[in-house]
Amino acid sequence: MATPRRIGAEDSKTREQLVDAAERLLLRDGYAAVSSRRVAAEAGLKPALVHYYFRTMDDLFLAVFRRRAEQNLTRLDRVLESPQPLRALWELSVEPSGTAFTVEFSALANHRKAIRAEIAEYAERFRQMQVEALTTRLPELGWDTDEMPPAAFVVLLTAISRVLAMEEGLGMSGGHAETLDLVERALTRLEGEAPQPE
Amino acid sequence: MATPRRIGAEDSKTREQLVDAAERLLLRDGYAAVSSRRVAAEAGLKPALVHYYFRTMDDLFLAVFRRRAEQNLTRLDRVLESPQPLRALWELSVEPSGTAFTVEFSALANHRKAIRAEIAEYAERFRQMQVEALTTRLPELGWDTDEMPPAAFVVLLTAISRVLAMEEGLGMSGGHAETLDLVERALTRLEGEAPQPE
DNA sequence: GTCTATACTTCGATAGAC
DNA sequence: GTCTATCGAAGTATAGAC
User: Fold this and answer.
1) What is the pLDDT of residue B68?
2) Any idea which nucleotide's C1' is nearest the CA of A40?
3) For B130, which of A72, B138, B154, B162 could close a Cys bridge (C-beta 3.0–4.6 Å)?
4) What is the pTM of this model?
């Protein structure tokens, strides 16, 4: 028989605080900084609680990932139904915390094989949602989908936003202005000007 | 007075073996797997040697980074002078090990501040070399640099190759075929067909 | 230049009291 | 549900013999 080890409830408030703390550490200092002791300290709790709510640290990483992944899918849903979906999608894609999150988990997937499959599955789903939305939307906007199919459009948008955000995190900026201008002109051609803040 | 601690010579064969081992570990298992003990084991040497040649682990990381960075700059130089520089640049950019290297050090820069500046400086230099080459080359090929300036072209090429490689490492592939096809058509329009292997 | 030995820290994980 | 206490493994780094 396996050990009947106790595990805390999924809807616990304390558990949520631990996930919050782990996410903050992950974004601020990178995944290598997410240890059970540090997470506990960041949350103002005792280290043993981490292993009460999560059997292993991998379980904690997965909890952090899943929560954010679900939030992202929900936000994407809203974004794709907004009046200017391409513009809104771009705004969502360039959010620094979202990109930092993706980069950390991509690196983490390198040596935590258990997490890799889950990340890949989510990423495919996230992309597929965008492709489906753009498959009806792009032709309506007069986009030449023979020249650039929706799937390529989505990859391009993802690639540009992620690399700009990664590099900005490093403190580099060469070519960024020209690239942002390119994106802005494409968005304006497709969906018109961005709404001006009043 | 500071400690007169001994440090091994830079041209040592043993030192090189340690850098080799660290690079292998970095690419295979991620930066978190690069510890002094593991590097030594990977190199078939004793752990104490790591600290004989490198005062701290950060010094070792920097040695790995610098060696590869210099190799990359040299290769880039050759690539930009080849008969089909854009195609050659693309081939260089999609190399999986190069991208894995970049991603690991980007993540590493998150919590090893000492390394960040060095990475950013190299990256800017790498980009600038490409921009300069393409600034004369793209107009010769009939590219509309008003629509897409050389700097944006370089960022785009970097972004596409890096994201494709990152995702491939995760085991995801949605939209990749369409994107590769897009790149291939652009390269063919600019520089003609790829040379066929005999 | 390389070795053994070791000091000290931090880590994941668990047992068992409360 | 939370605590103290603790085990054993692994980490960085150094001292000093050879």
Assistant:
1) 98
2) D2
3) B154
4) 0.95
